[in-house]
Amino acid sequence: MIPQNRILVKTFKGLEEPLEKELQSIGAQNITQLNRAIEFEGDEDLLMRTLMYSRLALRVLLPITSQKIENEDELYDFGRTLDWHELISLKKTFAIDCVTFHEKLNHNIYLSQRLKDAIVDQYRDKFGMRPDVSPKDPDILLNLHIGSEGEATISLDASGKSLNRRGYRVSGGDAPLNEVLAAGIIDLSEWNPETPFVDPMCGSGTLLIEAAYKAKNKAPGLIHEEFGLFRWPYFRQALWKRIRDEAFHKVRTDVDWIFGADISKKALAIASKNIKKARLSRNIKIKPSSYDRFHYPEAPASLVTNPPYGERLSDQQELNKLYTDLPGILKYKAPGYNVVLFSADKQLKKRIKLKEEAIIPLMNGSIPSELVRYSIRDHRKHKQKTA
Questions:
Q1: pLDDT tens digits for 255-280?
Q2: What are φ and ψ of residue 288, in 5° steps?
Q3: What is the CATH number of domain 6-157?
Q4: Where would a tag sit more exposed on the chain, N or C end, judged by fewer CB atoms within 10 A?
Q5: What is d(CA 142, CA 138) in angstroms, rounded to the nearest whole number?
Q6: H or E element: which one contains 198?
Q7: Residues 6 or more apart from 366 whose CB is under 8 A from it?
Q8: pLDDT (tens digit, 9 = 90+) per residue, 199-241?
Q9: Where are the domains of the chain?
Q10: CATH 3.60.20.10: does it fit domain 179-220+235-386?
């Protein structure tokens, strides 16, 4: 059973377009944009490069086969038709991760169980033995996707885990931002990585860390210690080493224009630990400060932040003051800036009296959110021209 030459990359809803551009830069061709995913043609080299370079991928899958099913018994029969011993030896462990969007086939655990039964029953019939299941640390991770119309797709999970788990988060603090979502927000901000990046309400520092990685050109694959495909029977270690060495030599060391602040000492302590764990202490400068007292570097620069909202700031009066005062503070403190605010607060746009350049709906987990991009006019230059 040889996997198809199609690669499927999952991401957050709203990040499909920037993910497509990212994959094109890696070399992807014949791309199909799906809901929360991008599919494209690719060989083993491109599969490994996707794992190495994609900042916006949650999972990287290699589809094996698909078939429409009506019930769990048909899923079992479907699983029995596949020749599993080419992928899973008796000495290997496996697990099944199931995602379903079907109205009736909606029990993830039971669906996984039925496919698992099909696999182990096949082994018992052929060999009188069966491979073990290891939910926490399998050698081979399978992905079962059930679409709304009953299309069952079985894939090999090349990532082995959700790729947002970069490994630098010592503590998330209150309402931490997902790492892949943070990377997507930065991409959508249209920040130039050669210019200063500012987050004056940085919380646990996720946006700062992802921005620093981007400015340093440090590929996410250099951060992860292991991927699922490392345990595949046909994994080519030499090819991975060549791609890894290539990525390592692209990393910059001179980045020192990432700035953050927060009024909360607790949040800054968490951010400091995360930054240190990410080995970015020389690249990111953070300080205790409120957004209105923060010293903003001169433009051109970008301010990208996830300002406090209901889950992060319990005082509604303080929240209203922040949103009301922010435009004036930015006009005075950050003229010429590209500003991006990401929030789940539906009233944000009404309170921020600035002209929006773009409004992009995103999902923060299960929470509908929006990315709003503004451009702060530099009144000083305007006065010089009219003088």
A1: 999 999 999 999 999 999 999 999 99
A2: -75, 120
A3: 3.30.2130.30
A4: C
A5: 9
A6: strand 197-199
A7: none
A8: 999 999 999 999 999 999 999 999 998 999 999 988 999 999 9
A9: 6-157, 179-220+235-386
A10: no
